Structure formats: structure tokens, C-alpha cells
Amino acid sequence: MFRIITFIGILFLLYSCIPLRIAPSIDDYKTTKGKKFKRGLPKREMFIFEDPKNANQFYDYINIKFGLDDTNVYDDVPFKIAGQQYFFSFYEVEIPTKTINLIPVVIDGLLDSADIDPVLEDAYASRIGNWYIAIEVYADFEQDCLQEDSLSREAVLKYLRTIKQEYLSTYNYNEVVFKN
């Protein structure tokens, strides 16, 4: 009985993938320091949500919605809330989930012991990409409008939630022009 349980345990171990890094799952949105979420992002507080759409779809949405004609689409996008001028910048960020696949490692180990070159080296690790949109908001009177103690935080968060919902629910971005 012990041998059967050991064999089943080893079998499960060989068929498993060991995660090295797991991409975060964000249900709605998250506000956090950009640098804490992903190295290379600014140190400011950021509004972050998962992007299920194809690459550059958010760029196209922002470009059409704000009529930017492909000028400064990533940086200093102006918008107003209650007559106050704000700006936002956004970043498309990928955080892959990395796993090690044990079966190819074991098979290549057995082949190597038989003096045969490894054939499954490409299958040792797998990556599944998860994409996120990270948005920072600033104004002439506030450097970081998403900080906990910011006076405009709640109004800005409400605006960004509306932008997120409109982006995720719109497939033809020219419709956005007519909604404004």
C-alpha cells in the first residue's frame, strides 16, 4: 500500500508545474505605489486594473476619447473634474506567471544519463502573460492626486472608475466620441 501511495505521489509531482511567480489577480481595480506593483513604474500612487483586451487597445481608446491625434497619448492627457484641470499618464504593464514543468526536466535527465542530448529544454518553463493598465494622476496644485491624503482622491477615483468601465464595455471606440 505504501508503494502505491508513494508512486501516486511521485506521479502527481512529475505532472505538476511549480509556480515561480504568480501574476496578481485584480477583481475591479487597485490603488498602490507603482514601483511596488511593478519595477520600472513611477513611485506615485496608481490606479491599476487588468486589461483583457489586445495590446494598444487602451491607447486607441484614450486617443479617440480625448481627440489627441496620436500626440502625447501616454503622457499628460488633460481632463477636468468640477472645473479643475488634471492630467494622467498610463502604462501598459505585463506581469507573467512563470512555472517550472517537471516532466520535461525528468525526461531530459533520463536522456542525458543515456548520453542523448536533451530535446525538451524549451518546455522547462512556461509563461502566461497578464496585462494591466496603470494610471497616475496629477495636477498643477497636486503632484499625486491618488495619495491617501489627497483632497481630490475620491473625485479622481470616481472618474477613473468611469473611464475603466467605458473602456471595458466599448468595442468601437468611435462610439466614445458620440457619448461625450
Strand content: 25-35%
Report the end-to-end length measured between terminal Cα atoms: 70 Å
Radius of gyration: 23 Å
Q: Portion of residues in helices?
A: 25-40%
Name the average pLDDT: 82
Order of helices and strands: HEEHEHEEHEHH
| Shape descriptor | elongated
Tally of separate domains: 1
CATH class: Alpha Beta
How is the main sheet built?
Answer: 6 strands, antiparallel
Low-confidence blocks of residues: none
CATH-defined fold name: Alpha-D-Glucose-1,6-Bisphosphate, Chain A, domain 4
User: Tally of extended strands?
Assistant: 6
User: Based on helices, strands and strand pairing, what is the structural class?
Assistant: alpha+beta
Helices, by number, come to 6
In CATH, the architecture is 2-Layer Sandwich
What's the quick description here?
This protein has 180 residues and is α+β, with helices and mostly antiparallel strands. Helix content is 34%, strand content 29%. It starts with a helix and ends with a helix.
Structure description:
The protein is of the alpha+beta class. The chain has one domain (20-98, 127-179): 2-Layer Sandwich (Alpha-D-Glucose-1,6-Bisphosphate, Chain A, domain 4), CATH 3.30.530. The chain is built from six helices and six strands; from the N terminus they run H-E-E-H-E-H-E-E-H-E-H-H. It has helices at 2-15, 34-37, 57-65, 102-113, 153-169, 174-179, and strands spanning 17-21, 30-33, 45-50, 77-81, 84-101, 125-138. Strands 1, 2, 3, 4, 5 and 6 form a six-stranded antiparallel beta sheet that branches.
